[in-house]
Amino acid sequence: MREFFVFVRKECYHIFRDRRTLLILFGMPVVLIVLFGFAITNEIRNVKIAVLDESRDTYSRRLVDRITASGYFAVSTYLSSEAAIEREFRRGEVKMVVVIPARFGHDFNHGRKAPVQLLTDASDPNTGTTLINYANAIILAYQEEITGKVKLPLTIAPEVRMIYNPSLKSVFLFVPGVMTLILMLVSAMMTSITITREKELGTMEILLVSPLRPLTIIAGKVIPYIALSFIIALSILAMGFWIFGMPVKGSLVLLLLECLLFCLAALSLGILISSVTSSQQTAMMISMMGLLLPTILLSGFVFPLESMPKPLQLFANIVPAKWFIIILKDIMLKGAGLRQVLVPTAILGGMTLFFLLISVRKFKTRLS
Amino acid sequence: MRTIFFILQKEFLQVFRNRSMLPIIFVVPVVQLLVLAFAANYEIKNLSIDVVDYDGSTWSRQLRDKLLSSGYFSLHRQAYNYKEAFDDLEANRADLILTIPRHFERDLVRENEVKVQLLVNAINGSKAGLAYGYAANIIGRFNRQVRLDWLALDEDDGPQHFDISYRYWYNPTLNYKFFMVPGILVVLVTLIGAFLSGMNIVKEKEMGTIEQLNVTPIRKHHFIIGKLLPFWIIALFELAFGLLVGKLVFGLPFEGNIAWVFLFAAVYLLVMLGLGLLISTFTDTQQQSMFITWFFLIIFILMSGLFTPVESMPLWAQKLTLVNPVAYFVKVIRMVMQKGSGWEDISIYLGIMLLFAAIVNSVAVWNYRKTV
After folding, report:
1. Transmembrane region positions (chain B) (predicted)?
2. Is B340 in contact with A90 (Cβ distance < 8 A)?
3. Does the beta-carbon distance from A21 to B112 stay under 8 Å?
4. In this prediction, does ipTM exceed 0.85?
């Protein structure tokens, strides 16, 4: 046991001596959370649009004013002909064009119906539809302002209540997401790289002829990283709480234990990767290529899982990040207790054991 | 010249000799492209909904059926009471709850207005917003139908109004894959370019073999070019392969001249390789080099407009994208492929990229001389 602690201490020295890596490990989460917490949203603001106003009467001018006054849109150019639309779109700055045909005000007053056309650059389909929805609502509001609210008979009025996040802050989703991403990659990459490094430099053989058992060696290498990842998790939680007002409605102890569990899961994945590779480059590429995009895309972090095709939804079940994000959201935003998050917790625990089991077996056969 | 050729040969041999590296470079990216293109989709479909229908009338059932037949929602449970449905929402089994009050049909006719309640799980704010938008839209359409049927009201006889029409340019079917696949390709090409190049040089440092190279007659620029060029070639090959797969599998549009994409990629890769080189001059171990590269890349990628539009970022973040090479490439590849943008549209971006390449590489080479 004493040897084990000495070994752990040696590993800690290794980590602490490398100031640069340490700085990155701790600086990175801070920068990432602040940056993404503020920058990554799906909210629309100040989108550049162009206007082709062939009418130029008070109605059309006020319509454009209404659209820009909302703060969602900013007119970057006034076009003079239809042909100019294509050019604007191709240059890529303008995302929507509002086309107001001639005699707009006249048609509205005398024809009771005045056409407006909204053209969006739907090369980004999501932004395209969102912009149209926004503009549509603004134009209708303007219409109501002119005509006065027309009370229609037989009206079904939908009343909405947004639960858990009434102001629809996207940061509530991004903090857990970024946290998962950082922990996953840092833990998995760190461990896989440190272990393969020993292999690559040939020092693994030296360790193996020492009186320490292989399992002890791995554990000794991993323990300092568990501590490191846990501290990273803590600092992310703290920032989420104090900077972005992420609530922690559930038990803090439970939340921390779950973080620890996820760190373990990621580390065991790292050990698994290291047990099947012999060079740092390969280990890194596997953790990058194999974990980066799936963790971003298949965890429900950016894109909703239920909209994906069924096979992909099934596949997402083996992505540990998915379960951790569910746990985080449930505990932090819904105030769930252990009973509610039992299933995802059990799955994460099971994955961890599974990864460890395989890697222990692989490891032994490789080194004997 | 001959020296460079020999170094290149050596480097390529090293890359191809590493059996586990080959699938990572060539197979994994393509698999990811194929799989993840399906994942990257903001379209809301199959949201699970609980309906609490206290009325049980013809109209309330029709309203429910309208929602379910839209394709956006699938019924999780027809709940008997509100409490039951709320449990489903809490346990993530339902994304939203529609509650239709008692006497819905009667009150609609008698009082001329009746409220239905929608409860949305809003943890994912954008999803919740879209879900509500769709639901409100469907309810509105149902409402008009009821009005037309019941009152025989003709819409054209209505009050004066704006007649708003829409057109979605460049992607009328709103196919999200046309948008995402080129973007994912950019990430894959970037990973190869920036990571492998940087690590490859640091590896020689870590192993101590760089000193051996330093005492050979190989000049430093030979060494650098020899180290970087293979990955430049591999990454461009990767791009070509990815585009081919994208064309065959997803029917990606090639509106513009694809040569512009390759020209831009060639310059872009110089920036990324230069970045890898620069990082390698600051670091001594592959681990360090990897973490620094990872740090920059994750920022570059998440702030490139790939997943979330640049337009929706706050102004300071939009300014930051001006120095983000990934953002330019994502933008250009989408412009050329989807909109057919040509030289006059992309030349400015190409110029910026050339400038980046010149700066990054000069700093890297200058720093390389100092340290090694």
Report:
1. 21-40, 178-202, 223-246, 258-279, 291-310, 348-368
2. yes
3. no
4. no
